[in-house]
Design goal:
The structure holds 2 protein chains of 2 kinds.
Chain A: E1 5-7, E2 10-13, E3 19-24, E4 31-38, E5 42-50, E6 53-56, E7 65-71, E8 74-79, E9 88-95, E10 105-106, E11 110-114
Parallel strand pairs in A: 2-11
Antiparallel strand pairs in A: 1-3, 3-8, 4-5, 4-9, 5-6, 7-8, 9-10, 9-11
Chain B: E1 3-6, E2 11-14, E3 19-21, E4 23-26, E5 32-38, E6 44-50, E7 56-59, E8 62-65, E9 75-77, E10 86-93, E11 97-99, E12 103-108
Parallel strand pairs in B: 2-12
Antiparallel strand pairs in B: 1-4, 3-9, 5-6, 5-10, 7-8, 8-9, 10-11, 10-12
Chain lengths: 115, 109
């Protein structure tokens, strides 16, 4: 299996621009997670989906952030408008099951820099 | 609430040295505990896990024991290699995953 695939690997944009991050989970995994990693706050859960339905978006920082999962093999995280404080590494992860046996599989991340 | 506290880095060791990275947790329920490793430029990978008290997780020479009495899950390795250089994250899973802030390890030849 190819694992969780994220694109782009790096994104540099100017403040105010729209940014779209993409994720393809592992085939057959029912759960998809978006995390943000910064030096100050570590790894934060932004939102997760189960069977393409958003279950918990309480970690989404502001209305500027939105996430969608139109089908089982694709998800997007959009920031509009972007701000310098959004600069971070954004990870997508997927898992087969929830509960005690859950194991997260992470993508390689998108390094976002907002100038 | 749930939280994970792990020792701050960076940690620098010579090859073949003994490694300990401390991790303690606070949980409202009975969580599973994990160590994830992040190599440069990559996402986090599961290193080992333990799902109940007194369980020992092990992988690639790394070990950690789920200690409920001390709410700890310290990571150990008897002899580190240069290839172990990475960032290590302790995590607990209750209703969701909670990650520590990560500990950077550099092993020098």
């Amino acid at each position: 299996d190819a694992g969780v695939i994220q694109s782009p690997r790096h994104e540099v944009t100017e403040m105010g621009q729209e940014v779209t991050l993409r994720c393809k989970p592992i085939s057959g995994h029912d759960y998809l997670f978006w995390y943000r990693q910064t030096m100050m706050r570590g790894l934060e859960l932004l939102i997760y989906f189960n069977n393409n339905v958003p279950i918990d978006d309480s970690g989404m920082p502001e209305d500027r952030f939105s996430a969608k999962m139109p089908n089982a093999s694709f998800s997007t995280l959009k920031i509009q408008p972007s701000e310098p404080r959004d600069s971070a590494v954004y990870f997508c992860a997927s898992s087969l099951v929830r509960g005690r046996g859950e194991k997260l599989f992470f993508g390689s991340g998108t390094q976002l820099s907002v100038l | 609430g749930n939280s994970v506290t792990q020792m701050e880095g960076p940690v620098t060791l010579s090859e073949e040295a003994f490694l300990t990275i401390n991790c303690t947790y606070t949980a409202t329920g009975y969580p599973s505990l994990f160590w994830y490793v992040q190599y440069p430029g990559e996402g986090l990978q599961l290193l080992l896990k333990a799902t109940k008290a007194d369980d020992k997780g092990s992988n690639k020479g790394f070990e950690a024991t789920y200690r409920k009495e001390t709410t700890s899950f310290h990571l150990e390795k008897g002899s580190v290699q240069v290839s172990d250089s990475a960032v290590y994250f302790c995590a607990l899973k209750d209703d969701q995953f909670y990650f520590g802030t990560g500990t950077s390890l550099t092993v020098i030849p």
